[in-house]
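Quick question about two entries, pasted in order.
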Amino acid sequence: MTVDEARFLLDRSVGGKLLIARLRGAGWVARTLAEEYGDERAQRMPDEEWIAEGTRSGYVLLAKDHRVATRPLEAQAIYVHDARVITFARGELIAAEMGDLCLRHERAIHRLAQVQPPFVMALSESGLRRKRLNVV
């Protein structure tokens, strides 16, 4: 996957329509869980399931909660499936703020499509920082 081919799958917690519209407006190739799997299924998918399926489909995953790196089931799914996950370092951000951060660090985010997985990167004002995966 090259930087030009980076594709993103957005977790249901990241503001849905507002953030996806902002990213697409900037030229990102991005889909929401509801678009990819249907609204009903997307609402019921456990994190470890969408992590596995989104990764198998070639997406870089965008989630709101950086604690996916520390919760055992999610961390194991990221590790086992070689997922590339970007989260937000601050969980209280609204969609507009998430969009601002993504666009401010767009080049670095798109380069992650070339970084050897698995990983979780937390995105903040200062950029991307790798989170330690809680796997045994």
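Here is the second entry:
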Amino acid sequence: MKSEAYLFAGVALFFLLTDTAYIWFAREPAGIAALSVSFGMASVIAFFCMINYRRKGVRPEDRPDSDIRERTGTLDFFPPYSGYPVVTALGAAVIAVGIVYGVWIILIGFGLLWPGVFGMVFQFGDRESR
């Protein structure tokens, strides 16, 4: 995180210098506001990265002698098959067509969308969590 903190601190410094020059030469409020907000956002990210580096230390990806497996862990459960995403996509497509052609088609789209979403959420609901 240290290199990311330095990177975003450099970006924040760039926006600060650009904002200062823009205030001096242009005096246009929208540009000044945009550059000031950009400086603030880059500063917040640099601060966050530096605090994380101080709390957690060096990450495995920062060391040249680290292995890939040092950062891995259990990913999650991925279903082997399911027809519900297709039903959900079809429902969303019918809703999009209904926006163009009429409300009655939107109702048909919601009739397809809700079972698809419900099925995706609860298809593997009986599976034990880890």
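Reply: The mean pLDDT is 87. The chain is about 70% helix and 0% strand. Hope that helps.
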